[in-house]
Amino acid sequence: MRAQTRSPPTCVSRSDPTFAPVGASAGGPAPAAEAAKPGKFMRRLLSWHRRHGRRDLPWLGERDPYRVWLSEIMLQQTQVATVLPYFRRFLDRFADVRALARAPASDVMAAWAGLGYYARARNLHACARVVVERHGGRFPRGCQALAQLPGIGRSTAGAIAAFCFDERAPVLDGNVKRVLARHWAIEGDPGAPAVSRRLWERAQRELPPSPLMARYTQAIMDLGATVCTRAAPACERCPVRSTCQARASGRVAALPAAPARRERPVLRAHVLVALAGSRVLLRRRPADGIWGGLLCLPEYASKAALLRRARSLGADPAQVAQLPPRRHALTHLTLELEPYLALAARSAGDAGALQWVAMDRLDQAGLPAPHRALLGEVGQRYRAQRA
């Protein structure tokens, strides 16, 4: 749900000269709320949150930087409902930053499998090690120091600093961007540098006094998540609707501007589902690239190469069955998988870098969602045939 990028400056003050003032510019008209009494937006938000804020999320009210950090990373570009079971299981497996730091990378990737955007898991592990090795197992206090850690961008650093240390640091996740862009009619793609600068400046300008930072940060996040939603926003329930420029001009649906759509390249691969009894053949991916570090079904550039591998495992190439093709959309490309099922000999010999994994242990091994779904269907079919 939330994508983080590391782009300087990291955590800056209102006086930072890199920020242009919010006013009449190419980005849109001067916001009507500029004339409002200072702090009005913040006070309305806090009053609304006392009665209507979310209460049922396990990370709410947290002051432990490890748990706040974990929730913020998991919630990047990922829905809350998807994150909830992963968050709980991850904490059961890695109770604190030291436990995460000393865990093998393969265990971390297995715990993350299915959550997507796997660079987050690699950065999570790297960050935990830095916190332990360089900071004695304690997250550094302050947004600037936090933003120097692997995988922690400016918004995540601001969230940790605000929730855990009461620092006056802004947050600019997708929900907050939407609230600010609509309320102050900030035009343009939020990902564009000029628009991003305006959003950060506005986010900084509206910050409350330090003791209110945790409540305010959660309030503006909750408003974007539950009221000022991307589709069908509930403007009639919004505590700041009377000063919302987008609502006044009838442009709620148009703000924030959608980024320009880009054609995603298509990557095609032939996937081998090799079964030997109750085991399946898997390969661990290189650390970099798609699904880096995960166990996956082996992929081949051609059917001929796949059949050669099947033959080396003792399977009869004539009996290798083609399964229905699968299509999976990733962030920057689309995968088109052409799977083939091969029944390998039980004593297939050395499989090189490949490894056999029991089908009933795939949850512990951790696989990307498309491969896990494919194996689930194959397993059902296999069990039905044997019944």
Characterize the structure shown.
The model is unreliable at 1-10 and 12-31 (pLDDT under 50). Strands 1, 2, 3, 4, 5, 6, 7 and 8 form an eight-stranded mixed β-sheet that branches. β1 (266-276) and β2 form a beta hairpin. The chain is of the alpha+beta class and 387 residues long. The protein folds into two domains: 32-249, Endonuclease III, domain 1; 266-386, Nucleoside Triphosphate Pyrophosphohydrolase, CATH 3.90.79. Helix content is 41%, strand content 11%. The protein contains 15 helices and eight strands.
Short descriptors:
single chain; 387 residues; alpha+beta; Endonuclease III, domain 1; Nucleoside Triphosphate Pyrophosphohydrolase; 2 domains; 8-stranded mixed beta sheet; 8 strands; disordered N terminus
Total E-strand runs: 8
Quaternary structure classification: single chain
Category from helices, strands and their pairing: alpha+beta
What percentage of the residues does DSSP assign to strands (E)?
A: 5-15%
CATH class of the largest domain, anyone? Mainly Alpha
CATH level-four homologous superfamily name of the largest domain = Hypothetical protein, domain 2
The count of domains is: 2
Name the helix and strand elements from N-terminus to C-terminus, one letter apiece.
HHHHHHHHHHHHEEEEHEEEEHH
Helix content: 40-55%
- Mean pLDDT comes to 86
Q: List the uncertain runs.
A: 1-10, 12-31
Label the overall shape. elongated
The CATH architecture classification of the largest domain is Orthogonal Bundle
Major pleated sheet: 8 strands, mixed
Q: What fold name goes in the CATH topology slot of the largest domain?
A: Endonuclease III, domain 1
